[in-house]
From TrEMBL:
Compartment(s) of residence: Mitochondrion inner membrane
Solcar repeats mapped onto the chain: 14-103, 113-199, 208-296
GO BP annotations listed: mitochondrial ADP transmembrane transport; mitochondrial ATP transmembrane transport
Topology class, membrane: Multi-pass membrane protein
GO cellular component: mitochondrial inner membrane
Pfam families: Mito_carr
GO-annotated molecular function: ATP:ADP antiporter activity
Signal peptide positions (record): none
Family as reported in the entry's similarity comment: Belongs to the mitochondrial carrier (TC 2.A.29) family.
Gene3D superfamilies linked to this entry: Mitochondrial carrier domain (1.50.40.10)
The keyword Isomerase is annotated on this UniProt entry: no
Name listed for the protein in its UniProt record: Mitochondrial carrier
UniProtKB keywords: Membrane, Mitochondrion, Mitochondrion inner membrane, Repeat, Transmembrane, Transmembrane helix, Transport
Amino acid sequence: MSAVKQQQAPPKPLPFQWQFLAGAVAGVSEILTMYPLDVVKTRFQLQVGTGGADGYSSIGDCFKKIIKNEGFGTLYRGIIPPIMVEAPKRATKFAANEQYTILFKSVLGEDVNKQGLSILTGVSAGITEAFLVVPFELVKIRLQDKNNAGKYNGSIDALSKIVRSEGPLALYNGLEATLWRHAMWNGGYFGCIQGVKSAIPEAETANGNLARNFIAGAIGGTFATMLNTPFDVVKTRIQNQAKGSVLKYNWTLPGVALVYREEGFRALYKGFVPKVLRLGPGGGILLVVFDTVSTMIRKHILLENV
C-alpha cells in the first residue's frame, strides 16, 4: 500500500513589508501586460448607446479606430497614474488580505469556513484599497476619454487642472462607487480562488503549482469581473463628470438603475469583454507573480525552507 502523503501546513504570512513588495511587483507586471485593454474598456463604458458614427462596435473596431485616428500611443494614454498607484494598490490588496485574514481568524476562530473567510477578507481588503486609488482612477479616466484629448497634456497637467478648476475634493468624486467596485471584485476574487484551489488537487511540481495558481487566479478574476462590472460602469461615468457639467450620475445604486432604465441591462456590462480579457488572465498573472516573488523572498532573503 502506498504511503499517504502528509499535507504540508501552509506557510506563515510574510512580514508586511515583503507582502507589500510582492504585491507591488505583481501589480506592475499585470498592468504593463494588459493596459491597452483598460483603455478600450473605458471607451466602451463612456459610450452612451452606440456612440453614433464615431462609436465602437467591437474590441477590434475600437483598437483600429484608436490607432488610426489617435495614434498607437493612445493605447497607453493615462498609464502614469495607474503605474504610480499600482504598486501600493496591488500591494495593499494582497497585504491587507493577509492582515485581515490574521485578524478575522483571531476574532472568529481558526475553524471559520475557509471560503467565507476569504470572501470577508477580500471585501475588507477591497474597501481599504478603494480609498487609495480614487484620485488616480479619476485622472486616468479623464485622460482616457477621447473627448479630453486636447484638454490635458499628460497626468500632471490633468491633475493640476482638475484641482484648480474643480477643487481638491473633486479627486475623490466616485469614492462610493469605487468602494462598491473594489469590495465586489476582491470578495469575488479571493473567495473564488479559495473555492477553485479546494477543487484542484495539490500539484506535485513547481510548474504544476504555477499552473494551478494561474487557473485559480484567472477563474477568480473572471468571476470577480462579472460581479463588479455594473459598478465599474457607473464609477467611470461619475468620475468623468467635470464640475460645471450636468451631474447625471451621483450615487452608485441609483446610477446602476438609471443606466438600466435608459440603456437596458446590456449597458451595465459595457466594456465587459475587454475588462474580462484583461482581468481574467490578469488575475492569473497577479497570483502567479505574487506567489513566485513571495517564494523567492522566503528562500533568498528570509532563508526559509520552501
